[in-house]
Amino acid sequence: MSALILSVTSFIAGVKTRFTKEERGATMVEYGLMVSLIAVVVIAALLILGPAIANLFTGVAASL
What we know:
This protein has two helices and no strands. The chain is elongated. About 0% of the residues are buried. It is mainly alpha-helical. The two termini are about 30 Å apart.
């Protein structure tokens, strides 16, 4: 999972570098694209890890 986060972070840094090379400042559209990409990654991680985390909490609650 940490490798995925590292690759996403480096991708975002690369995108930011490419956008700022051509123009001096980032526009709201570029920030919106980065935020939407981060949101998609977070949602995908929650969909993948959600059931495992729910099972973990259920097991802990049952043990208590």
